[in-house]
Amino acid sequence: MEAEVSWSGLPGMSFVATTGSGHMLCMDGAPDGGGNNLAPRPMEVVLAGTGACTAYDVVLILRKSGQDIRDCKVKMSAERAEEAPKVFTKINFHFQVIGRGLKPNLVDRAIKLSHEKYCSASAMLGKTAELVFTHEIIED
Asked: Which helix (H) or strand (E) holds 54?
């Protein structure tokens, strides 16, 4: 896996990443940190990427389990250390799993498998942060 990050050259702290798969992603800093608030902060991208990583796993596991999953949302909130490096110290993941006739034990299993075995991003963040998982099943 590869990526390249370049400073945009604009006044401020905007950066453009080009991923190994050829996609571009913009990031910026907060105005009080020299940024222009033109794009997400790098740590917001880390948090969002972790949510996408685990949601991907949950959907894939539930599909393979024969569940009629229609949607999966993960709402996350994170706390960070006061001092630099301001790593995440606690992350709450709340899954909304939407489908028809979803079996609660299989939803529980999918979320646990994601975080205990498959999601590389949460495995890394779990080294510095307490990870808390909750979920709800919504009938579609």
From this structure: helix 42-64
